Amino acid sequence: xxxxxxxxxxxxxxxxxxxxxxxxxxxxxxxxxxxxxxxxxxxxxxxxxxxxxxxxxxxxxxxxxxxxxxxxxxxxxxxxxxxxxxxxxxxxxxxxxxxxxxxxxxxxxxxxxxxxxxxxxxxxxxxxxxxxxxxxxxxxxxxxxxxxxxxxxxxxxxxxxxxxxxxxxxxxxxxxxxxxxxxxxxxxxxxxxxxxxxxxxxxxxxxxxxxxxxxxxxxxxxxxxxxxxxxxxxxxxxxxxxxxxxxxxxxxxxxxxxxxxxxxxxxxxxxxxxxxxxxxxxxxxxxxxxxxxxxxxxxxxxxxxxxxxxxxxxxxxxxxxxxxxxxxxxxxxxxxxxxxxxxxxxxxxxxxxxxxxxxxxxxxxxxxxxxxxxxxxxxxxxxxxxxxxxxxxxxxxxxxxxxxxxxxxxxxxxxxxxxxxxxxxxxxxxxxxxxxxxxxxxxxxxxxxx
Length: 450
Description:
Blueprint: H1 13-31, H2 33-42, H3 46-59, H4 63-73, H5 75-89, H6 105-126, H7 130-137, H8 143-169, H9 175-198, H10 212-224, H11 227-243, H12 246-256, H13 262-290, H14 293-314, H15 322-350, H16 356-388, H17 393-411, H18 423-440
Helix pairs in contact: 1-2, 1-8, 1-9, 3-6, 3-16, 4-5, 4-10, 5-6, 5-9, 8-13, 8-15, 11-15, 11-16, 11-17, 13-15, 13-18, 14-15, 14-17
């Protein structure tokens, strides 16, 4: 796996990628499509599904106070502590599907909520170590390439998990099948811990200062006043508010409105992962070559087109079956990679010099507030509108997200990236070079010997 200049990723990145592969299996089941379908199986309504979806981003807020510990404890040590705790908590989910119909649904949903609360609490406190750890070991000129390869690895794990889950569930979603999925998630988490232990770096920072929680927030305020960082975070927050509720409630839409089987919904969700899997490696290299901003614009434009499609579906203007839904999800994955990977790369250059650790945490905390708020608010609003209004809540949700992304696309113009070329020029080069780039994305170049 090489960057545009032909330099290979260091061999030690294999351990990072191995962790992400098995971690993807773990989190796909624990906080992805299977989790939403399990909640529906146990009897959860839209409001509770919104609450469960919002837990992951909301508890990412803990990354900011955990920053004061990360440098002193070591990034690896903090990651191991958090990931070990959340992995073992998943075993508590295993009995719940077997008890459906034997215990009251509110009790089962309450237990599931408490387990997911603990899972996301431990995840949120420790995950702030990841990006600063990578910054210490991945060469700057290969970061875009690494992010693309890492995204491909994660999406491979997600795709394998969703397809395997679909096969496991089959035509009927029996309780024991969901219980087995929870066991698989926990085992994958245990395996991922082995790769974290084998990963290089992550030691405590020498002479790291215990600046305290108050000082962390003071420093966060200083970083926020750094204009490039503030602009990047504002854009990402707006996009999170527009997009974060859509995937989860599309699952509800496909199940309740289109009466799709759980196994079919797994495959449709897998199509989005396949789109990101195909696009990810090329986007990583192209962002190193052309800059991040033009690719982010292409991604946002693609999201706008897809939201318009789902709006027309909700209005009854376009009929949808499983193949059409799968194609739409595939394109969602493509546009997600085109926006998300360059955004991370752009963020690396937006943090104030020497403040990457706190800067990454501030970014993730701020965007997580909006990422968590969207599904929480839409969950309660959809349930309320179903009971008290004749207006289709999905029409309202798709319309709002579409309008907010239009504004975000305009706001993107204000972000400065001197080395980036114009979006029109990128489109022209892609049209000329895309076949070769697509093939190169799957070329087994191998790792370096560093």
